[in-house]
Write a structure and sequence with these properties.
The protein has 5 helices and no strands. It is about 75% helix and about 0% strand. The chain is an all-alpha fold. The N and C termini lie far apart (about 55 Å). The protein has one domain. It is elongated. α1 runs antiparallel to α3.
Length: about 110
């Protein structure tokens, strides 16, 4: 089976929703004080995503693959999201995750 830009967009979108769920779950869990094993799984998955991004120069490897297959460079052509939202994923999710980690740290220390 030949991988197409459609496949990359589909996989990237699924990964985005899973990781976004991890961010929201981390926030909910830390705010509610219901810290479980799943909280730590969510935290670790987001941290792993961060490691992957750092190792690839802050560009998602799926974006690089989409560009190699002909997607425009710098375009949000590798995910099924509106461009205005896709352009703001890192600030929105990063801030939300940062808040979740701060609350989680506060709860763990306390």
């Amino acid at each position: 089976m030949k991988i197409t830009i459609f496949h990359i967009k589909l996989i990237h979108t699924i990964i985005f929703w899973i990781l976004s769920s991890c961010v929201l779950y981390s926030l909910f869990s830390s705010i509610s004080g219901q810290i479980t094993t799943w909280t730590w799984v969510a935290v670790v998955l987001i941290l792993l995503e961060g490691v992957v991004l750092v190792l690839s120069g802050w560009i998602c490897p799926l974006t690089l693959l989409a560009e190699r297959l002909g997607s425009e460079r710098g375009a949000v052509a590798d995910i099924f999201l509106p461009k205005w939202f896709a352009d703001r994923i890192f600030p929105i999710c990063g801030t939300t995750y940062g808040v979740a980690l701060l609350i989680l740290l506060f709860r763990v220390i306390r």
